[in-house]
Amino acid sequence: MKAKHIHTTFTIVTAISVGTPLLSCQKKKSSTETTEETDSVPVSGGGGTPAKSSTSKSSKATSVDNAVVTEATKLLALNGSLSIIPAKSSTTSLHLAGTEYESDPSDLYVQDDSFEALQQASGIYCFVNRLGYIDMVNKGKYLAQVNEDECFGSKGSGSGSSDSQQGAVQYTSVIVESKREEGKPLQVDFWLGGGGGSQDSSETDTEEDPYSLQGKLVVAGGATAKNPVGVFRLNWAERGGGGGGLESFGDENGDIIVRMVNISENQYEKQDIALSAVLKRDGTTEEINGGLMNTKLNRSWQGQSQDSAYKVAFNDDRMLRKSVAGEEKCFDRNEFYTLAWNYNLYTKSDGKRVTINSGYPLEFKNEKGKIIKAHIGYYGLWAENNESIPAGATVSRITDWNTHAKQDYTVIKSNGKLVKNTLIELKLAEIVGIDLNSWNPTTSKQVRVTYNGTKFEVTAEYQQDGSSGSWKDVTASDFTLAGGQNFFWSEGLGSVVILVENNAVSKITITTTEDVTATAGNLSLACVVECPVASITSAMIAGTSNASPFSPDRDWSNPPTFANKVTYDYVQSEMAIKRGGTKVDFASGATLSGSQRYRGGIRSGQLIPAADATSLSAFYTASVFYTWEMGQDSWNMFTGIKDSAGAVVKFDAPLQFTYTHKQANDADGRGTSFYDKKFRLNYGGPGQLWGIPSEKSTQGWYAPLFSIKSGSELGADNKYLIKIAQGEQRMKEASSCTGLVLDAVPPLPAKADLKPIDFTVAPSDDELVVEVIDGEILGGE
């Protein structure tokens, strides 16, 4: 089972690692979002989630049981993340009144290594709040697609600025029905499963009913500044007997109680998680000014186990925690690091959120007549249940959300992809201290090279351990650059090429990339090094002999020669490159899965227009060049769609630009060693910015090595403003927690305390269409 996918259980991708950041997500705004105070509107009305600072009055309900709820439906929205200990305000001095930059919330939460159980609760809370249920009240059953990684995937993934390695987004399909009667709480029923590309769907799902988890959410009070959690009860039940519940309610003292139980077991994993917390209100202001929390987490996963239990007490200034082993630690709530996981970009001129045409949902009828839900975008095609949609298949897209009228498209595929690369020059001083990864042909290992301001040194090696591996520091040793081009990869810069001429560094370049497979037109291209052969065999991939998938290959002791130039034809209609008239392809039976060097795919050296290839220096001086990528993963092959006129549908590539980190832009002072260093950032739409380097902690979680302060200017001509969309505050240790005691933590609940539900078969989804993607309503109201 792929643990990150939750179509059989609400579970966490980093099941065993301790200290994984508390996961949250930001619900995207709909076109109708408002934060106005409203006393009475029809309960069938929509509306989006108010920001935490909304002045909308809170619900009078203290529990979902027999509550009379008079608030407008839009005031019953919950937040994107579950926070027990309120984050301290993190404001920016920049204000743009009346703009999306000003109104979009920064979803910040307090994180601590004792919050494993809270992490589970927050992931579930986040997932459900991406179903769009507020806007879809009393509109009947509908389908939502949710990217689980936004709630359950590790935020500190260390992905950096990957070069065309993203792959299609994988979604979980959810059947949802949101209902409300006058004067009663909001009720949301949902069934999920069949999504995310899980490898074990056949073990728990059936072809007739791929939905394996049922949930019920009842909301009697929305999230407000004085109750950031809301008043609700959420229950879920799994096929096979697992399940749990999460709820928030007010007690007789006016305090807020939060409880969660999650019990689940399958052939891969067993877990028993419980949480109980009380949030104390200030008697005068009614603001949360303290609380207590009790947690338990017992989990076993593929022979490994994790057991932890904590008691926590906090007030406005301090947090005290005690582990089951008896160790106590005190933390300062006013002194913390800000780790930003997601950002939004805005145009500086008008404060509007930058959006990108990144894709839309599709439907496909397979050979058995079953309607399969899918999604197409810049990074390719995803389909639920791991369904394979072949080239030439007809898929359809809804073009009118009122009538559900559809337009048909044809799927097109290629065994590789043509990538256009545009060079950006760097100065030698800009790469001081930046980790550069390369391949050492002598040791057949990846090495990490660093320029210390005087010379290049090997500082680490990648050591393989079975199917996995990790970087290990080594005693620094001199690294000699070869004459000609030296190729590296950096998490923060992507591909880095260092050109050496006359025994000195003459040019350093990084690239921005764009997939042009279906739009480039026919091209005649030339290559002088790492030029793919027409038929790539298993022996070439294995690297066990002198055979190579390239001819000429790179000779690390000698620069390439112009005399060995090879010419290719890129044929746009076939979306393929040909060498000597033969399509470059894998020979029958050749696979990359067992190759250490080529497991991630085959990538050519520089390809430049043949007409420009008049000398070797033409390759070194080209500011734009192409590369051909191919492999057996979605990220190094092309899948797209074309319309009835034969035109290929084009989706927007992520925005790519360089960013120089400055002290004035640093959110918390952690980025000192990166001041005045340049990075290549990619922005794929709201919440999706990558390129900031990260580091794995001793606890196993990744953290960005610096965070950019909200309000900082970046992009070409500083045309954009950045704002933290999601992040966490990690408190610094303090010497004393006087006044905090752990004796009164609330008892842990049992599953029966949260009124569990029984699993029932999901309704048919054959006539349903995707109306919501990650909380965003398609087609508006």
Folded structure, characterized:
The structure is a single chain. This protein has 781 residues and is mostly beta strands. Helices cover 4% and strands 40% of the residues. It is built from five helices and 45 strands. The protein has a 17-stranded mixed β-sheet that branches. Strands 16-15-14-17-18-36 form a six-stranded antiparallel β-sheet, with no helix packed on it. The longest helix is centred in the first third of the chain and has 13 residues, at 116-128. The protein is globular, with a radius of gyration of 27 Å. It starts with 99 loop residues before the first helix and ends with a strand.
Spell out the key features of this protein.
781 residues; mainly beta; six-stranded antiparallel sheet; 5 helices; 45 strands; globular
Strand content: 35-45%
Number of strands: 45
What is the CA–CA distance across the termini? 38 Å
Q: Helix amount, in percent?
A: under 10%
Mean pLDDT: 83
Q: Main β-sheet, in a few words?
A: 17 strands, mixed
Radius of gyration: 27 Å
- Backbone shape: globular
Structural class computed from helices and strand pairing: mainly beta
The total count of helices amounts to: 5
- Report the uncertain regions: 1-9, 11-59, 155-165, 194-205
Short note summarizing the structure:
With 781 residues, this protein is mainly beta.
Spell out the blueprint of helices and strands.
Blueprint: H1 100-103, E1 107-111, H2 116-128, E2 142-146, E3 172-180, E4 186-193, H3 201-204, E5 213-221, E6 231-238, E7 243-250, E8 256-265, E9 269-281, E10 288-301, E11 304-315, E12 318-323, E13 328-347, E14 359-365, E15 371-377, E16 380-383, E17 394-400, E18 405-414, E19 416-426, E20 436-440, E21 445-451, E22 456-465, E23 468-478, E24 484-490, E25 494-501, E26 504-515, E27 523-527, E28 535-536, H4 538-542, E29 566-571, E30 576-579, E31 582-583, E32 585-586, E33 602-603, E34 608-609, H5 616-621, E35 624-630, E36 638-642, E37 655-660, E38 678-683, E39 689-690, E40 694-696, E41 702-704, E42 713-714, E43 720-733, E44 770-773, E45 776-777
